Amino acid sequence: MTVAASDADERLRNTGFLRRLLIRPELGSVVGGIAVFAFFSTQSAVFRSIDGVANWLDPASTLGIMAVAIALLMIGGEFDLSAGVLTGTSGLILVTLATRAGWNVWLAMLAGLAIALLIGFLNGLLVVRTRLPSFIVTLGTFLMLQGLNLGVTKAITGTVQVSGLRAAPGYEGARAVFAGSVTLGGTGFRVAIVWWLAVTVIATWVLMRTRPGNWIFAVGGNEQAARAVGVPAARVKIGLFMTTAGAAWLVGSILALRFTSVQANSGIGQEFIYIIAAVIGGCLLTGGYGSAVGAAIGAVIFGMADKGIVFAGWDSDWFKFFLGAMLLLATLANRLVKKYAEEVRH
Amino acid sequence: MTPQTTLLQTRDVGKTFGSVVALREVSMSLETGSVTCVLGDNGAGKSTLIKILSGVHPQDTGEYLIDGAPVRMSSPREALDRGIATVYQDLAMIPLMSVWRNFFLGSEPMKSLRRFDVAAARRIARDELRRMGIDIRDVDQPVGTLSGGERQSVAIARAVYLGARVLILDEPTSALGVKQAGVVLRYIAQARDRGVGVIFITHNPHHAYPVGDRFLVLKRGVSLGEYGKAEISREELTQLMAGGAELDELAHELQRNESTL
């Protein structure tokens, strides 16, 4: 055992590197991202300029924060359909408390966080206790929140939006932290991009380098086996739902502070885009496999398509077509990767 | 070898699920560095017994003693904390996770700042597998790429490394071919020689007899007796499992086949 390379087995051929690259969950999203960037770059010079990049990184960032959280949840083997509408709920709570009850913006944000985490906890608890598919449980939460958002907003304001956050105490400080801009080389980048990068880095670190990360892969891969070796599966899953809810709060707050008003129907329909971005990033719909970096890149693809279609001068209706096509391609690619990864090597 | 002490023991344990009596008055014991085989056909109550032993659910009647002290456990974690590890037939491992991640699942080595010590996990997994004589090409490969026998062997090595004093193996050989089953039997013997008490559940007396020290035979939820190796021959064990009349019939059938050859 004096050889430094003693950890290598002589039966491992050098094709191992290529193979290891191919079974990376992020691979599909990286290839897709490069292709989409190249395509829109040929269509529009603005798209590939630094201002263009700042422009499409903005939708990528708020979508990306959610996609990363949803990716963790999907690796853990669950879905959350209420995540989109919860961004609306969090924003509504923030603006309503700050403008109607006169709360300080920071305090209102804390209240929003507490309620979001509670909803995440209840989602998780219901899934874990009832053993119903999370698809159904969170569909229920989704519809209930959708009704609440509209009903309560109408009851309080008489309209379907709350606004006027700009005048609330503490607004300027909170705006600088969550909805401001950073100037880099003469171009203003939204500060949300920093939050998105931070969320991605933290999520990746948790997944790859911590004990809960190992548990997330395990409960998604085979919950019974994980439980049998002592993994607290219920706690892991509830934690994941609360993480998703926390991310929804962050995104809801960023958007509310940016626009200073929130529509009662905001966030609805976004939940599927989060899931699709996570799938493009390599998450299997069956759980146990995926990547936070991949989900972040999946969000970049959507940011590029969202703005790219406008830069190229097309009708934005094409975005939905693009969404569907990307989902199908990504799911097929993931299945191939999974098969390749599980293939017995001799 | 150290003198044998009794690791665990059951006295007349029973379990009912609603109106179904799954297990009735079963007594058995396990010593350090020995193998107790639990034999029985499908529906004999083997699974119920190991679920009680491994802490999945507590017994309804009778006593379960670990190191001589009566216990009632209701989670596998409790059993693990007492050094009782269970390797299940189908769900021993997470297929999409690497060998080293599986090896330490639930007992991850840590370094400062609550970080998972990945380098140590890789190194220890590789060294431990080699020590048990298990030849894995690459600890980074997903467990799904291993053969059934390799998976069982990794699970056994894992439990032994993590300090199991009692290893409960649920049908580790039943889904395997002859050669692979032999490999797994060898690791059972290795674990035994390292002082671990092994409870080996199987429906195959030919797998049980070579490694077993004691044999508990179950049928329809009741014990047909617990025998030491000196008290029972392989033929008697097979006979006991199958039930006398059924076996005579089988022997008759086989004889006729032989004569027509």
Give the SSE map.
The complex is a heterodimer of chains A (346) and B (261).
Chain A lengths: L15 H7 L4 H17 L1 H4 L1 H26 L7 H18 L4 H26 L3 H24 L3 E3 L7 H8 L2 E4 L2 E4 L1 H18 L1 H11 L1 H6 L4 H27 L1 E3 L6 H11 L11 H20 L6 H25 L4
Helix pairs in contact in A: 2-14, 4-9, 4-10, 4-12, 4-13, 4-14, 5-6, 5-7, 5-12, 6-7, 6-12, 8-12, 9-10, 10-12, 13-14, 13-15, 14-15
Chain B lengths: L5 E12 L2 E12 L3 E5 L6 H8 L7 E6 L2 E2 L5 H6 L2 E4 L11 H5 L6 E2 L3 E2 L1 H14 L16 H14 L4 E5 L7 H16 L3 E6 L2 H7 L2 E6 L2 E7 L5 H9 L1 H17 L1
Parallel strand pairs in B: 3-10, 3-11, 6-9, 9-10
Antiparallel strand pairs in B: 1-2, 1-4, 4-5, 7-8, 11-12
In short:
The complex is a heterodimer of chains A (346) and B (261). With 346 residues, chain A is mainly alpha-helical.
- Please state the second-level CATH architecture of chain A: Orthogonal Bundle
Q: How is the biggest beta sheet of chain A arranged?
A: 2 strands, antiparallel
CATH class of chain B: Alpha Beta
Low-confidence stretches of chain A: 1-8
- Biggest chain-to-chain interface with counts: A-B, 33 and 35 residues
Task: Describe this protein's structure.
The complex is a heterodimer of chains A (346) and B (261). With 346 residues, chain A is mainly α. Chain A has one domain (47-339): ABC transporter involved in vitamin B12 uptake, BtuC. In chain A, 72% of the residues lie in helices and 4% in strands. Chain A contains 15 helices and four strands. Chain A has helices at residues 16-22, 27-43, 45-48, 50-75, 83-100, 105-130, 134-157, 171-178, 192-209, 211-221, 223-228, 233-259, 270-280, 292-311, 318-342, and strands spanning 161-163, 181-184, 187-190, 261-263. A two-stranded antiparallel ribbon of chain A has the order 1-4. Chain A has a two-stranded antiparallel ribbon with strand order 2-3. In chain A, a hairpin with a 2-residue loop joins β2 (181-184) and β3. In chain A, α4 (50-75) runs parallel beside α9. Chain A is globular. Chain A starts with 15 loop residues before the first helix and ends with a helix. The radius of gyration of chain B is 19 Å and the shape is globular. In chain B, β1 and β2 form a beta hairpin. In chain B, α5 (148-161) packs parallel to α6 and α8 (234-242) packs across α9. Chain B has 261 residues and is an alpha/beta fold. In chain B, the strands form three sheets. Chain B has a six-stranded mixed β-sheet with strand order 6-9-10-3-11-12, with helices on both faces. A four-stranded antiparallel β-sheet of chain B has the order 2-1-4-5, with helices on one face. Chain B has a single domain (6-96, 164-260), classed as Rossmann fold (3-Layer(aba) Sandwich), CATH 3.40.50.
